Amino acid sequence: MEGKPVSASFIVDQVVEVFPNDLNAHGTLFGGRVMQVVDSLAAIVAKRHSGKVCVTLGIDSVRFLNPAGRGDILVCMASVNRTWRTSMEVGVKVIAEDFRTLDQKGILSAYFTFVAVDDDHKPVEVIPVIPETEEQIKRFGAADIRRRHRLYSGSI
Questions:
Q1: Which fold has domain 4-153?
Q2: What is the largest CA-CA distance in the chain?
Q3: What contacts 148, CB < 8 A, 6 or more positions away?
Q4: Is residue 124 classed as helix, strand or coil in its secondary structure?
Q5: Cβ count near 85 (within 10 Å)
Q6: How far is CA 44 from CA 54, 60, 104, 124, in A?
Q7: I want to staple 83 with a disulfide (CB 3.0 to 4.6 A). Which of 17, 88, 125, 134 is the partner?
Q8: Is the pLDDT of residue 156 over 80?
């Protein structure tokens, strides 16, 4: 099966504004709200890469780095880090930008595992991903280490 480069399905600059109904009692963005945004974004990247419906199998290493507040602009990025036979890892990063000052801060980093499925919801083979840059090659290797750890620990 011929591979596809990371750039074929990469999404950058998906922009979401933080509204008052997205805030918790502390005036910061609900973690669940940002997770909803990035799960959807990661699924789109997985679909774009595989050309198949993809379902979330698991989420690894979610890191909430900083809070986002009302009016902040969330800049979301996602790409396929690695593929295996029927699954793939999609890495996601979210940056909050203050619209007044344009200052940016990282607010979330996570790794999603998706499985491509057919119309009967059975796993199907995934097109291999081809890392193109030094950073993508590094993420490609790190994804395999995370997968081996998951399989060893029995978490998936």
A1: Thiol Ester Dehydrase; Chain A (3.10.129)
A2: 50
A3: none
A4: coil
A5: 12
A6: 8, 18, 25, 17
A7: 88
A8: no
pLDDT at residue 7 is higher than 70: yes
Predicted local confidence at residue 12, as pLDDT: 85
Amino acid at 41: L
Cα–Cα distance, 90 to 92 (Å, whole number): 7
Q: Which conformational region is residue 102 in: left (phi greater than 0), alpha (psi within -120 to 50 degrees), or beta?
A: left
Over residues 103-119, mean pLDDT: 97
In sequence order, which residues have a C-beta less than 8 Å from that of residue 141 and are 6 or more positions away? none
Summary count for the chain: helices (H), strands (E): 2, 7
Q: How far apart are the first and last CA of the chain?
A: 26
Specify the length of the chain in residues: 156
Residue 151 banded pLDDT, cuts 50, 70, 90: confident
Residue 66 buriedness (CB in 10 A; 0-12 / 13-18 / 19+): exposed
**Spatial separation of the C-alpha atoms in residues 57 and 52, rounded to whole Å:** 15
Burial class (CB in 10 A: 0-12, 13-18, 19+), 146: middle
Name which of 154, 151, 152, 146 is nearest 60 in CA terms.
146
